[in-house]
Design a protein that fits this description.
The structure is a homodimer of 558-residue chains.
Chain A lengths: L11 H11 L4 E5 L6 E5 H17 L7 E5 L4 H12 L3 E4 L6 H11 L1 E7 L18 E5 L12 E4 H6 L15 E6 L9 E5 H11 L12 E4 L11 H8 L2 E4 L6 H11 L3 E3 L2 H13 L9 E4 L6 H11 L3 E5 L9 E2 L11 H5 L3 E3 L4 E5 L14 E6 L17 E2 L2 E11 L3 E7 L4 E3 L2 E3 L1 H9 L4 E11 L3 E10 L7 H8 L11 E4 L13 H9 L5 E2 L18
Helix pairs in contact in A: 1-2, 1-3, 1-7, 2-3, 6-7, 8-9
């Protein structure tokens, strides 16, 4: 039986229109350094600019579905592009400015980007891409002079001039909600980057989904600071959710050094802050020596990696901040779970809940597939690969051969290993490829890293599996220490005793100035493994150990 | 450009599955009178029954899209039907048990109901419907013996036996999200009732929409008491929203007398309560003489009619309860607006915001059409008919000839007259057909009713327009007084002076024991107008007035 309901498509333009008409007085704050450290605009202003940008891009000949790429910090202009580009029927392609130019060039070509919106401060990044910009017709320079040497077929514009030449009042087209609205490439550590093309529908549903109490529950009194970059999986959905709820948005631009972030937080008093764990960690360290006022923060979100329990505890004890994990991938828009402790959780149990990867979101389905391919129970002990399904989960990759290894009967294989507890609580223990199977049993590198990081002398710790003649694989801990602190492998092994199973305790320890990280700030385990295999790591072993390590001259002899 | 996202339909079964798997320990409480006054079940239990009900209906031969009607109070079984019937691909048709049997018979026939799920206490209602049950194949009696005399072609079952004979584990089918999931008839005061067929998509989106902070923001710590009947526009979306959020649900069944409701509230300590304004009014009156503990209530919702300002003020002053209006129609699922005051509103201004009909919800569009057919600005003063558009707004009626008078270029004409203030705040002043145009200017009957009700002697007041030889139309006030109170037209006219424009003050006053109400508890203005026209109302006029009133022997002479 057919329903009688109106056939209204779910479009990004509805998000734009709602913030514009209903919350036109809400504000977008631009933070900067120097004398013009702060300025702000209303949502009405931003929407006006979105209408002008759409008019300008139309005048320049953008076609429906064409890719308009951004190479930009978290700025009001980036927000304008978030709203305008999908609403006009083009596809917003957020480029990751942390990528090596080889990868970036590959992505720009593969996505067939036709327009580039680039922050003036990032123009230098285009030089090494010259040869890959064959498909780019226009470059729009944001916030500065367009001083750049580009191939002759590209027309260069200034953002301000382009928008000033247009009038607001652009009429947004009717679109199919299943058409692509945005494109984001995964920063896979193996193989070529792969594009995920979000639809208007998936963005709309993700935005509504994260707006519930099991998500961010943003409201018109919030002041939202998404430190997570807008090129990183839609900044976890925070900009759209904040715009739809009428929350003020604080855009920190290039201010990413910890003292700058601390200043922004102290001055802007955000109620909601999203950042990867390493940023939260740096903020807490910074707060030990300098003023850091987190008293305004009611919602603190992190993602990208599991936060050490010590960090959760410190944030709670010192600042009353409950840092909530989100778990997901670029492929999942990204929020699949979020760690909101059950209402009424006693104070002393809160960190136990915050330490989990989160509870599955409405309309997202999660399942656990064991090594034998069978579905595992939600019992908190059965381990398997986590698989996801839902209206904001990808089912394929853009312009790429089928990737059967990424999907399983219509479910996305996340590549994450973990358990599901009763009540839909996911606890990720490892990336499948990072998991360590030692003597036939799994060791969770994430749990080990957390346990090591609890030692006050440890700044960061990354654990990888390395070959071992006796146990097949054993953990190697690569550790950086708090400046001035001193501890060795012996001390840390002692510290771990009682904290983790005895056979989990690594024999191999490497102390480094900084642990390697990927372009989005995650621990770069592949690098650590490679460095180790090449004998390029200085490895400490207990005196009585029979473990061996490779050297520059070759692998250990068996 | 096509997106890469999974094509997952939005289905009611996803709501069911989420509550079942993620919040299986949340509870559904059954309130009753007598010795078994209270019992409760888990969400897991309810979902188990939903699976059994689907298996039973399948065994009885329900076909995809067939209507399964409910004639039931707010009970756990009604919730089971809410979850099971749409999820299995049939259509849940909630029958309004307050309707006259003529209308009910018309609706059962028009909807082609094939199954009836009926509370044992309501079986008597079927007797006068005997001749209209030709299409009904099975009647399932909930909570009692199936003692009923029905036509021979109908098989009668007991709910308990039917479910006990099945096993849980029903496999919910894949469905098209645009198929009908539920059906509800409008209780129009003119013409035949009309059916609105909600889709899986519209229910899903409405549920997500009302779950945001601009809506109910229910969470797993809430205890939700929807006093609003489940046959009344999906109980405003509260059951599905509570289920999706894992909020406990309190089902008050047949307990609708004010002392019983007060007892339920005092004992169950709900955090969220939804009821029409007259119920809230009665509760407040009751609380003047008896214990009423509203301290647990964080969310109080009302709808169906504009609450008098006096009621809002009393609830706030005496109980700290901010009663929030929702505005919408059966045709709009129903929430189109909700009156959440802007965050940070000073205490003394709160009632000003609560007195509005609400702020437009995300993904719902509202516009104002003036008498000349042109769109009016959101300036808070331009009056017009409110029109709505959105994914949970109906675009037609079930099995009915086109109703062009109900739609306008793809927008639903709400039949409500009002203004839109900047920021998307709707203030309904009247039903279009109830609006009074006196000497060429609009008088808001709702505002007049509110002003009259502020007098402490007044229990309820309804204002209608009546013909007037000089001004075309003038307001007539029909008033019931608080028991024991005494006041007349003179006193109330004096009271209104200064509170409303002088020319708004009614000349015609009628004092009655109870103001007439419709089947869903709204003021029945049509009845009042008819009674007046027939001279059946005792009307008081000021001594110096030249106004005239009809008498039983005929209309006033001109």
């Amino acid at each position: 039986m057919k329903s009688t309901m109106q056939d209204r498509e779910l479009l990004v333009r509805d998000i734009l229109a709602h913030g514009q008409r209903v919350y036109g007085d809400s504000r977008v704050v631009r933070c900067a350094d120097g004398p013009a450290a702060r300025s702000s605009q209303t949502f009405a202003d931003i929407a006006d600019q979105a209408e002008r940008l759409a008019a300008a891009l139309t005048r320049l000949g953008v076609r429906p579905g064409e890719r308009v790429a951004t190479l930009a910090w978290n700025t009001p202009e980036h927000l304008v592009a978030y709203l305008a580009v999908p609403s006009m029927g083009a596809v917003l392609h957020t480029l990751n400015l942390r990528l090596h130019h080889d990868q970036l060039g590959y992505i720009v070509e593969h996505a067939e980007d036709a327009f580039l919106l680039v922050d003036a401060t990032l123009l230098d990044m285009l030089a090494p891409l010259r040869d890959r910009l064959g498909g780019v017709r226009h470059v729009v320079v944001i916030g500065g002079a367009p001083e750049v040497d580009l191939p002759g077929h590209i027309t260069v514009h200034r953002w301000d001039e382009l928008l000033a030449a247009e009038r607001p009042g652009f009429v947004w087209p009717d679109l199919d909600e299943r058409e692509a609205a945005a494109l984001c490439y995964t920063t896979g550590t193996t193989g070529d980057p792969k594009g995920v093309a979000y639809s208007h529908r998936s963005i709309s549903l993700h935005t509504l989904g994260v707006s519930a109490s099991a998500g961010f529950a943003m409201h018109d009194g919030d002041r939202v600071l998404p430190i997570v970059p807008m090129f990183h999986a839609n900044a976890w959905g925070w900009p759209y959710a904040a715009w739809l709820a009428g929350s003020d948005l604080i855009m920190n631009g290039r201010l990413l050094h910890t003292p700058d972030l601390a200043r922004v937080i102290n001055e802007e008093r955000p109620t909601a802050v999203a950042a990867i764990c390493t940023i939260w960690n740096s903020l807490v360290r910074h707060g030990e020596q300098h003023p850091l006022d987190l008293s305004s923060v009611r919602l603190a979100g992190c993602g990208g990696a599991t936060p050490p329990r010590a960090l959760l505890q410190q944030l709670k004890d010192r600042y009353g901040v409950r840092l909530k994990q989100g778990w997901g991938l670029t492929e999942t828009s990204p929020l699949a779970t979020f760690a909101v402790p059950p209402h009424g959780t006693p104070d002393e149990d809160e960190v136990d809940w915050l330490a989990k990867s989160g509870r599955v979101m409405p309309y997202v389905e999660v399942r656990l597939i064991g090594e034998d391919g069978s579905e595992q129970p939600w019992d908190g002990t059965s381990v398997g690969e986590l698989e996801l399904r839902g209206p904001w989960v990808t089912g394929s990759y853009f312009n790429t051969e089928d990737s059967p290894e990424k999907f399983h009967d219509g479910w996305l294989r996340t590549g994450d290993l973990g358990v599901i507890e009763p009540g839909g609580w996911v606890v990720v223990s490892d990336r499948l490829k990072d998991g360590i199977k030692s003597g036939g049993e799994w060791i969770s590198t994430i749990e080990l890293e957390n346990a090591i990081t609890e030692h006050p002398a440890v700044l960061e710790a990354v654990v990888v599996g390395v070959p071992d003649p006796r146990w097949e694989e054993r953990p190697l801990a690569c550790v950086s220490l708090v400046p001035g602190a001193e501890i060795g492998g012996d001390g840390l092994r002692e510290f771990l005793a009682g904290r983790v199973a005895r056979w989990w305790i690594p024999e191999r320890w490497s102390f480094v100035d900084a642990v390697p990280k990927t372009s989005v700030g995650k621990y770069d385990k592949r690098s650590v493994r490679t460095l180790y295999a090449e004998g390029a790591l200085d490895v400490w072993l207990p005196r009585d150990s029979d473990a061996q390590v490779p050297t520059e001259s070759g692998p250990p002899q068996e």
